[in-house]
Here is the input.
Amino acid sequence: MTLRLWPRTLAAQLVIVTAAAVLISNLAVAIWFELGQQQLTQSSMTERLIDRAVSASTLLASIPAKQRENAAHALSSNVWDFRIRHGRAPEAAMSDAERPLAARIQGLLPKAKTRRTVLVKLRSPTAEEKKRPRSPVSVTEITIPLVRGTQLITTFFETPPPSWPVQSIAAAMVATVVTALAAGLLARRVARPLSKLAGAATEVARGGTAPRVPELGPEDVRRAAAAFNAMTDQVSRTMESQRQLLSAVGHDLRTPITAMRINTEFVDDADTRERLTKNIEELQELTEAVLSAAKGVGWEQMRRIDLAALVESLCADLEELGKPVTWETHGAAPLTCRPNEIRRAARNLIENAIAYGKKAEVHLEKTANTYDLIVDDEGPGIPESDRARVFEPFVRLEGSRSSETGGTGLGLTLVKAIAQGHGGTITLENRAEGGLRARLCLPREASPA
Here is the structure.
């Protein structure tokens, strides 16, 4: 199973992207500030080291020799150590990093001492020195002559800086949380109307009546909602006008058809009377189909039935009429639906299979969420490019389906409307062994779309 780490909703994506941008920018600023602060601290520490060493040597040189030891000890601390050394100053070579520091200290000493050499030594702390409080990372040792035969040794123990700028990180986290909350409020204001708009569009796609979308949120979202509402109103008016027109035409045709049927009884020629009767029956069938399409779906009450029993009864009725229908026995299939509509849809699929594919093989399949009514035939099938067209009203594929068999072109249109009205689908596919397979998928916990 694939783990989806990236959220799919607009609101979550907006919150995450905004929070991540603020967090990254704050961390970048904190790191940049810390690097600059370290450079500034190092420069300040060097100036402090020079000033402290020169000041201490000047002070100790001005007091009596007997008090220098005590004074040096008093000046010492955790990071500073001052001690007096008697005897001749040792000779030692200095590195490129040590010589500039020694030269600067030399230049700050009183002129009387400039003839004596200042010695600077940068080294790592010894094992004993590492035991000091706040274990030092480096040691700077400065030897400054006080008077003849006496030197002041100033030792500075540099301690490690703080590992992270805690205050900057805390500020970054606070800023991230506040920004994420603000982004969440904005995302909710934008995403909720869009979510309702998407839900309404999905409802229309499933064949239901779209609810009005609240015209809320930013101006762009409000305009989209208003345009959608106007579009659905126009579509609803158009569909209602077409339904009323079909209904009126169908009802108006019934009267002349009835009169024509009565008049055929007075025709003496039997062949002529038979042809007229057949034509009238076809016209009657077309009229009834138009009225069914005009009535649409959704008028019947939903109730619980056994889908397997319903389809088995339908197949048995058709078999008694001599139709080539086979039914594969299936266990109970409880389904909440409009029974008459489901029966009409199943009958249309089976009769299509008989009319265009010689026979109908019917069975049910139970999936995790649906009952699938499957009708197979042995006909020529339908080209993939035409499978969407056959669901349009009055469409008949004369090339791929026999043009000699009847049909009004409304059967599959009604099946699709019934399927969508139950939250299901209808699909057609050519079988590998030949023939067409119609699959009517109905949700097991069906709800009206």
